[in-house]
Write a structure and sequence with these properties.
This protein has 144 residues and is mainly alpha-helical. It has one domain. The protein is globular. It starts with a helix and ends in a 17-residue tail after the last helix.
């Protein structure tokens, strides 16, 4: 799954400098370096789930630095209006997923984001003439 996530991240637009600063990101090359080396501490959970489905889903992961005690969920829910759309787009979070997160529907958030990321992955693969067989290529639970 790390390869697919890397591909999806590299296809997303780099956030503007002010967004990067807000989120603690320095550049796309830093994202690539962290992902390529498999530094798992870079992947943060967005929601803390009561179920394994939520906890281990790749759709529940994001690359974002936070201060100790800060919740990624809270940061996303409290983004300044002038940055919200750019941050969500750069992190592969569609508006519908955020609406579910804001409503407290953690599982719905995961499902909407999972489907969105899986579609982005299919589009990316298609550019290179690749097609996943039916039933493969979905963002499955991942324990890495």
């Amino acid at each position: 799954m790390r390869v697919e996530l890397t591909a999806a991240l590299l296809e997303m637009d780099e956030p503007a400098d002010e967004i990067s600063t807000l989120l603690g990101h320095s550049s796309k090359s830093r994202h690539s370096w962290v992902i390529a080396r498999g530094i798992s501490s870079a992947y943060r959970s967005i929601v803390r789930g009561r179920s394994r489905y939520i906890t281990l889903s790749p759709a529940n992961r994001i690359i974002m630095t936070t201060e100790p005690g800060e919740s990624v969920r809270d940061i996303l829910l409290n983004l300044p209006d002038d940055l919200r759309d750019d941050v969500l787009a750069s992190h592969g979070i569609p508006r519908e997923a955020m609406d579910r997160l804001a409503a407290g529907d953690d599982e719905g958030f995961i499902e909407v984001r999972r489907d969105f990321l899986a579609e982005r992955e299919r589009v990316f693969m298609a550019r290179y003439g690749l097609v996943a067989p039916p039933g493969e290529g979905e963002t499955d639970i991942d324990t890495e």
